[in-house]
Design goal:
heterodimer, A: 5 helices, B: about 725 residues, Helix Hairpins, Heat Shock Protein 90
Chain lengths: ~120, ~725
């Protein structure tokens, strides 16, 4: 299963990648929204995409809208990675087609819970 | 959480903090730049986001409250002012300290940042009601620091075992990281790679050398291939060690800002060529000298706004950093449009500190005066500020740069600014060098010290060196070049000549001096791998290191400066170089001086500073003609005016000797004009301290001094010329 991690922080990308790999995903990374679209064009639709909210070039919300506007990614589950400051924006994201959200900081267990919630089978 | 992730978080946070320093300074210059604010907000947000994973509540609450303040700035509900910038910069510093503490000890250091947090909160609160209201509707508790992260978070990050050792994480390669094309590598690993490549270069050289002794086409083909691959590998590995100079410069905007505020000055910093790359060992070595030079520019160079305005300049000073590659070296310039260096002030200071005797200072050219700031113990600041006055000066800058084979040049126009130009080699590990032999041993001479090579044919070799009482001098294009015999300098013993009897002189520069190193033979120039000497040999001043030659034998790398010092070479080249400058080595100097001893008239022993001697000539008496009131002689297609020293100083006439004996003439050159001083006999060149025992009122004589145990009159060269014919004197 493929996953896409989009975050402008290298550290956060590494953390998310480790956790997803532990959950059995094959992970591609991107630094911001526009970069993510390039990566997606190359690797094809992932099973899940984790999007940071606040990024340069193209933010997570804009990326979400772009993904949802493209029928090719209809089966891709999108999870917004936010901080508590962005709480009020989560509603907006869910309206725009996000499937779940994950609040920083999080641990492997929180990640696992969210993945299960989205219907993925995660080895414990 | 994994150790390497913790490290990753720390490394990235440090990078982000450096970025913040730059952004804040840029923002202060243009407070309306919304894009800038958005960038800062995002960076703080990222720091907060990632530091949350470390699970330290102090860090989290501080970044949280800072983020809130920034979000107001971003939305435009609050305008940026100096207070806010200062508070945010303090936040950056506090975060940096916490991260350092986490890195070192695994805790955030039990800091109390409540004052700073309260201040940040107050800055958010003092806005207009609308903003406050908006803020309140946005977030439930804006002014109060957020509580520590939820227990879940604490669980994630909790006792993250912190790295105690300095060793960095192994290269982080995320197998499926499609987007990540770069990899972080431990610098220790890079150093080991460089070392191995150095060894490979040596092995390659040995194989090439061996290749020249065998006749095997296949072997030659293979060794050529090895040769090319090794060169490419060497270049590749050297490239991995290259870092842009921007890594050092990135700290400067903050340094400049803080310093300018402290000094009550306004300074804008501009940079060009930040991506100019240098070996990381050199980056490390130049960090402090450059920082010091930047501090100097602000502290001593750029004037206070009111002074600038009065001088018709913009209130804001400009500090300009520029870096570029040129001739295999990196040039770095630090220039400002400040007041420049006041040569008079420098002179007075140098005299007051006893660095230069007053009468000598009086005769120095502006440029020579400016270069006095490089003397140890010099400082031009009128008052000791907390910025400078730390006991380090430009001499430290110069020493540090020269230590890595670089040079420093200072130019200044009083009233218009100062420019410091630093030239440094790209790398220290592999350097081009000239290989020479003496007593069938090979030595390598770093190319940076090399000026030119002179070879004298066997026929001419015997007469080329004027060896007067053990001070051998070679006349190189009209200049006196002191010679050092390498064999003698290294105390190798035995006669040292080239097999064919020719004379090989390697003209070298060291510490602004020029001298000739006489060797038995000159080989090729080669890229050599510098190996430090073992600690038992570290104390030897004559050698800078060792290298392994193509045949596997070790050759020592000569420390040119060390050899010059050992051989006690003092050359006048320093003064000669600056044509047109005042070249007086004036009397009264306490330094050891090189002196030319001459006999004037029948029995007067006189000394002339060697620095004032351009050449020694024997000219035929028959060639002397009269032109007007002067005696002149044809010399190098010009008429050389002659001054008879004996007549001017009133020495008793010499016994009239052989009318065919040539005239002994000391040629003195000044401002492009030459004057010949006629003496009876050239006696010797010595080096001695010159102390004027009895100042004379006599024309043409500065006074009497004791040279080598005998009373000797010191010739006043200008005075003699002046007395003979004022129109000849250079003034």
């Amino acid at each position: 299963m493929k996953a896409l991690v989009v975050d402008d922080s290298r550290a956060v990308r590494t953390i998310l990648t480790r956790m997803l790999e532990a959950a059995g995903f094959e992970v591609a990374q991107a630094e911001h929204g526009r970069h993510a679209l390039e990566v997606l064009a190359r690797v094809g639709p992932p099973a899940i995409a984790l999007l940071d909210w606040n990024m340069p070039e193209m933010n997570g919300y804009e990326l979400l809208c772009a993904i949802r506007a493209n029928g090719e990614y209809a089966d891709t589950r999108v999870m917004m990675v936010t901080t508590e400051n962005e709480m009020e924006q989560i509603g907006r994201a869910l309206e725009a087609g996000a499937d779940e959200y994950l609040m920083k900081p999080f641990d492997q267990e929180a990640m696992r819970d969210k993945l299960v919630l989205l219907g993925f089978e995660v080895p414990s | 959480m994994d150790d390497d992730i913790v490290k990753e978080v720390l490394v990235e946070s440090h990078e982000n903090l450096d970025q913040l320093d730059r952004d804040f300074v840029a923002l202060e210059a243009d407070p309306t730049a919304r894009g800038q604010i958005a960038g800062i907000f995002r960076t703080i947000h990222t720091i907060k986001g990632t530091s949350g994973f470390l699970g330290f509540s102090g860090l989290e609450s501080l970044t949280h409250v800072a983020e809130n303040l920034l979000s107001q700035l971003r939305e435009g509900t609050r305008l940026l002012d100096a207070d806010i910038v200062t508070a945010l910069l303090q936040t950056v510093d506090a975060v940096r300290e916490m991260l350092a503490s986490i890195e070192a000890t695994g805790t955030d250091g039990q800091r109390d940042d409540s004052a700073l947090i309260a201040r940040l909160a107050r800055l958010q609160g003092k806005g207009d009601d609308h903003a406050a209201h908006k803020q309140a509707s946005h977030r439930p508790a804006p002014a109060v620091p957020a509580p520590a992260p939820a227990p879940a978070a604490a669980h994630v990050a909790s006792p993250a075992p912190m790295p105690k050792s300095k060793e960095l994480a192994p290269p982080e390669v995320t197998a499926t990281a499609v987007s990540d094309t770069s990899v972080r590598v431990d610098v220790g690993l890079l150093d080991r790679l460089m070392n191995l490549v150095g060894e490979l270069v040596l092995a390659r050289n040995q194989i090439l050398q061996f290749g020249s002794t065998v006749k095997d086409g296949a072997f030659h083909g293979t060794s050529q291939r090895l040769n090319l691959l090794t060169t490419e590998l060497q270049e590749g590995v050297m490239k991995t060690r290259m870092q842009p100079i921007g890594n050092v410069w990135s700290k400067f905007p903050r340094v400049v800002r803080d310093l300018a505020v402290t000094c009550g000055k306004q300074v804008r910093i501009e940079m060009e060529g930040e991506d100019t790359e240098l070996d990381r060992t050199i980056i490390e070595a130049i960090k402090d000298p450059l920082t010091h030079a930047v501090r100097n520019s602000i502290d001593h160079g750029i004037e206070r706004p009111e002074v600038r305005v009065a001088a018709g300049k913009p209130a804001q000073g400009r500090l300009f950093l520029r870096a570029f590659h040129e001739g295999g070296q990196v040039n770095i310039e630090i220039s400002d449009d400040g007041g420049g260096i006041d040569p008079i002030k420098v002179r007075d200071r140098a005299v007051a500190r006893g660095l230069v005797p007053a009468d000598r200072a009086q005769r120095m050219s502006e440029r020579e005066l400016v270069s006095l700031v490089f003397l140890p113990g010099f400082s031009t600041a009128e008052k000791v500020t907390n910025v400078s006055g730390r006991g380090v000066g430009m001499d430290v800058v110069k020493t540090n740069i020269e230590r890595i084979g670089g040079t420093v040049e200072l130019t200044s126009r009083h009233g218009f600014g100062t420019s410091l130009r630093v030239k440094i080699p790209l790398t220290l590990a592999i350097i081009p060098a000239l290989v020479v032999t003496t007593r069938s041993e090979r030595y390598a001479i770093p190319q940076v010290n090399l000026l030119e090579l002179v070879r004298i044919e066997p026929k001419a070799a015997a007469r080329a060196v004027e060896s007067i009482h053990g001070v051998p001098v070679f006349r190189l294009r009209g200049n006196l070049l002191p010679l050092v015999y390498l064999g003698a300098a290294l105390e190798l013993g035995g006669p040292g000549t080239a097999p064919d009897g020719s004379l090989c002189i390697v003209v070298l520069s060291a510490d602004d001096r020029t001298f000739g190193l006489v060797v038995d033979g000159v080989h090729d120039t080669e890229e050599i791998v510098v190996k430090p000497l073992g600690k038992e040999l570290k104390g030897l001043t004559a050698f800078a290191g060792a290298t392994i030659m193509g045949d596997g034998k070790v050759a020592l790398i000569l420390d040119v400066l060390g050899i010059a010092q050992r051989a006690n070479v003092v050359s006048s080249s320093k003064d000669r170089k600056r044509e047109g400058a005042d070249t007086d080595l004036a009397p009264g100097t306490e330094d050891k001086q090189a002196l030319l001893l001459v006999r004037v008239g029948a029995d007067m022993r006189m000394a002339i500073p060697l620095a004032m001697v351009a050449r020694l000539e024997e000219l035929p008496r028959r060639g002397v003609e009269r032109a007007g009131r002067h005696q002149v002689v044809q010399y190098r297609e010009q008429l050389l005016p002659l001054v008879d020293v004996a007549t001017v100083v009133g020495a008793s006439a010499a016994v009239q000797g052989d009318a065919d004996a040539p005239l002994q003439v000391v040629v003195h050159a000044r401002n492009g004009r030459r004057v010949g001083l006629v003496v009876e006999q050239i006696v010797d060149i010595v080096e001695d301290f010159v102390r004027i025992e009895r100042p004379f009122a006599q024309r043409g004589i500065v006074g009497a001094t004791v040279v080598e145990g005998r009373v000797t009159n010191l010739l006043d060269v200008e005075g003699v010329i002046d007395a003979c014919d004022p129109s000849l004197s250079a003034a």
